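Hi all, posting the design record for the shared folder.

TITLE: backbone redesign
STEP: 1 of 1
STRUCTURE INPUT:
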């Protein structure tokens, strides 16, 4: 058989990484991770819970988006809040797709210190497809694929043969391939022989190369890499979202996976370096989020002290203006927008805007219908 894919290589699955070439990227990722953990460690319990809620929500939405599935933000956030114990269970309506995705998001970190057995992995897959179907198609759930047709990732073309991006090992080889992966993963948990982020990158690539299920391989594979990262941190707290970063650079994600899987060499340094860079970016995103939340808390603390007379509608509009950032609202804040946001009359909106200009909270520009208001920074 003509060589096409990495799993056909003679050295498969003995992945090779150039530690020296990887060191700069790994050092940067560890620095970002350390800064993030340091700042998160100083958060109050309520703020830490809010951070985790946001990361759970983003992880579920993003891992679904990568597969072309859209989840409702409010539904995901409500379900995540219930799972984190932030909302009474009986107050949260449940959506099947949301629950299935969050089952995997939770499973990846909640039991980070337990072995990843084949049974546990198959349970993840069964949870992802609770009705035994992918869309309207019935699939094998809670078990590896068994079909004889090639397992291919393709782009259909009208009137032409499909473009084959990747072909996984035949179904008959999947049990043995997965046994080797799970044994390697468990050995790495008990006696780490490589950096934890590198282990996560290789685990994800290895799993996606095998593509053991009829569907859900991407989501399960990302959960597997999340589990490896949780084991590296020795924590069940989800403080950053890898799937969000992979979604933001999904073209790079697809290209890197395809390049790594379509080579005869077992050298996967480019893939690992790219993955490590995503970890760095994900940690920096969380760090920026925490810092922004701290700045906003300081903004309101100062505002409450200096301007205790603010009405609820003024506070609501100021909050909107703050969240809009230094560039402000598209088109600027106007009396009409104030009415729509605060739900007050035009006369009240004009009076409250004028009061905030006089207090030095807002800056007014333009005249007549072109009058606009901007938040004065810093307060």
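Okay, here is what came back for every position:
SEQUENCE:
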């Amino acid at each position: 058989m003509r060589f096409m894919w990495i799993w056909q290589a003679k050295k498969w699955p003995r992945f090779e990484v150039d530690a020296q070439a990887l060191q700069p990227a790994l050092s940067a990722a560890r620095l970002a991770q350390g800064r993030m953990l340091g700042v998160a460690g100083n958060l109050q319990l309520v703020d830490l819970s809010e951070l985790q809620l946001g990361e759970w929500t983003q992880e579920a939405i993003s891992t679904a988006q990568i597969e072309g599935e859209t989840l409702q933000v409010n539904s995901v956030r409500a379900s995540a809040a219930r799972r984190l114990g932030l909302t009474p269970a009986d107050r949260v309506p449940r959506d099947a797709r949301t629950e299935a995705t969050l089952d995997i998001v939770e499973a990846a970190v909640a039991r980070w210190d337990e072995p990843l057995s084949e049974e546990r992995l198959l349970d993840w897959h069964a949870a992802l497809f609770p009705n035994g179907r992918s869309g309207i198609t019935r699939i094998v759930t809670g078990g590896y694929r068994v079909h004889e047709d090639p397992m291919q990732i393709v782009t259909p073309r009208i009137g032409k043969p499909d473009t084959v991006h990747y072909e996984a090992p035949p179904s008959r080889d999947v049990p043995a391939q997965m046994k080797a992966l799970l044994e390697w993963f468990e050995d790495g948990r008990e006696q780490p022989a490589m950096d934890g982020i590198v282990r996560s990158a290789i685990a994800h690539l290895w799993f996606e190369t095998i593509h053991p299920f009829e569907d859900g391989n991407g989501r399960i594979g990302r959960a597997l890499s999340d589990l490896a990262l949780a084991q590296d941190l020795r924590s069940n707290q989800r403080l950053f979202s890898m799937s969000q970063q992979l979604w933001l650079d999904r073209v790079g994600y697809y290209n890197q996976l395809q390049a790594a899987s379509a080579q005869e060499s077992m050298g996967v340094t480019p893939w690992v370096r790219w993955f490590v860079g995503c970890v760095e970016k994900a940690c920096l995103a969380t760090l920026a989020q925490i810092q922004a939340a701290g700045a906003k808390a300081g903004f309101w603390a100062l505002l409450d002290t200096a301007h205790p007379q603010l009405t609820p509608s003024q506070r609501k509009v100021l909050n909107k203006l703050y969240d809009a950032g230094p560039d402000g609202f598209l088109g600027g804040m106007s009396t009409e927008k104030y009415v729509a946001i605060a739900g007050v009359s035009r006369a009240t909106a004009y009076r409250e805007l004028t009061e905030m200009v006089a207090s030095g909270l807002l800056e007014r520009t333009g005249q007549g219908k072109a009058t606009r208001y901007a938040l004065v920074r810093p307060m």
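COMMENT: The first strand starts at residue 133 and ends at 134.
Let me know if anyone wants the other runs.
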